[in-house]
Each structure stands twice: as structure tokens, then as C-alpha cells.
């Protein structure tokens, strides 16, 4: 079974620039998550999709971050404009959404963003 | 406030030795607890997942325990190998039933295994 795919793996930009990340979840997984992981910390949930609807985006900085999940499959996360504190690894995860492993999440390799 | 705290923050051991990582949580309502291994530059990979009724679960050389009364969990690694060098993250699910749940992540324990 193919895992969660993310691209790019690394990205370096200057502050105030824009950047976009892409995620392709495991085939058939209904739920998709985006996390931000700052160095030395655990992942922090940014947004959760159930199919193509948003379930939770309470911790998404909506003034600069946006995300969409087209047709309930792939997803993109955008930052515009980026700030220095956005430097982190952005992890995408997906889960099948079925009992009993309904919230077993499978993570992608992440995109490491450096904002200069 | 739902929180997951892990200790130690970092740990260095010699290859072949055993070690135990700790996780304390204040999460309610509790659904399940899982341990993830995160290699440098990779996403977390699930090691074990335990529900309220389970108090131990093994995955090869990894054994997780759960005490739901004291809200503590541990991850024991036996006969460590160089490849065990990674961050180990304790994650607690705050919701029960059929919802997706709200996962609360610990900050992780960074384990370094030296030859």
C-alpha cells in the first residue's frame, strides 16, 4: 500500500514570499490532516478535512494560511505571506475514518520550510 | 486543559542497553494512546496504539504500557540498536466513539543510541 506523499520535501523562501505544499493521502482515506512541527516540538494540528469538508481549522492562522482539498483527495496548504516563525516541518497525515482504527493516522515524510 | 508530557526530553544510551520512556497525560475523555517513532527528516510512524482496556502492547523490541488510573504510559525498548535513534512521541486521543478525535501530542523524547 502506497503511503502518504508530500512535495516538495524542502523549500527555502524569503519572508513575505508565498509557498504551497501538496499532499496525496493514502487511497480511500476519508480524513486528511495538516500539521506544523516546529523543531523540538510535537506536531500541532492546523486543519482537518473529512472528504472535502473542513472539520477543524481552529488553529490555522487564517490571515496567512489557507488549505483546500480538491474532490476529497489531494490537498494543498498555502502560506501567503510567509513569516520567519513559519519555519517548520509541515506534515500531512490521513486516516481511513472507519472503526476500529478510525483515527489511526499515517503520516507523510513532511515538507521542511525555511523562511529567511 | 488537555496535556501530554514526556520525559526525559532526551536520552543517550549505549547500543544493546534497555531504556524506558515516560508519558503522563491529562486528557479527558480518553480514547486511546499511541506511541510514534519519528526518524530525523521523516514523518512519525505508529509503534503501538492502546485503548482504555489495554495495559500492555508489544511491537518487536518495543513494549508500551498504560495505566489509565494514574494516566501514565511508558515505552520500553529492549536491546537497543543504532536504528532506534529517533524521537518518540506520545499521542493521546481525547475523543471517544465514532468521531475522528482530537489528538494531543507530546513534545517527544529524543533518543540517541551510541555504539
Notes on the protein architecture:
The complex is a heterodimer of chains A (116) and B (115). Helix content of chain A is 0%, strand content 48%. Chain A is mostly beta strands and 116 residues long. Chain A is globular and about 35 Å long. Chain B is mostly beta strands. Chain B contains no helices and eleven strands. The radius of gyration of chain B is 14 Å and the shape is globular. Chain B starts with a strand and ends with a strand. Chain A binds chain B through residues 4, 31, 40-45, 48, 50, 55-56, 91, 93, 95, 97, 99, 101-110, 112, and chain B through 4, 31-32, 34, 36, 41-46, 49, 89, 91, 93, 98, 100-103, 105-108.
Strand and helix layout:
The complex is a heterodimer of chains A (116) and B (115).
Chain A: E1 5-7, E2 10-13, E3 19-24, E4 31-37, E5 44-50, E6 53-56, E7 65-69, E8 75-79, E9 88-95, E10 106-107, E11 111-115
Parallel strand pairs in A: 2-11
Antiparallel strand pairs in A: 1-3, 3-8, 4-5, 4-9, 5-6, 7-8, 9-10, 9-11
Chain B: E1 3-7, E2 10-14, E3 19-26, E4 32-38, E5 45-51, E6 56-59, E7 62-67, E8 72-77, E9 86-93, E10 103-105, E11 109-114
Parallel strand pairs in B: 2-11
Antiparallel strand pairs in B: 1-3, 3-8, 4-5, 4-9, 6-7, 7-8, 9-10, 9-11
**Span of the ends, CA to CA of chain A:** 37 Å
What coarse outline of chain A follows from CA principal-axis ratios? Answer: globular
Binned, the helix content of chain B reads under 10%
Residue share in β-strands of chain A? over 45%
Largest interface: A-B, 28 and 24 residues
Q: Roughly what fraction of the amino acids of chain B lie in strands?
A: over 45%
User: How many strands of chain A?
Assistant: 11
Instruction: Describe the oligomeric state of these chains in a short phrase.
Output: heterodimer
Structural class of chain B: mainly beta
Which regions of chain A have little confidence, pLDDT < 50, spanning 5+ residues?
Answer: none
Query: Which stretches of chain B are low in confidence, meaning pLDDT under 50 for 5 or more residues running?
Result: none
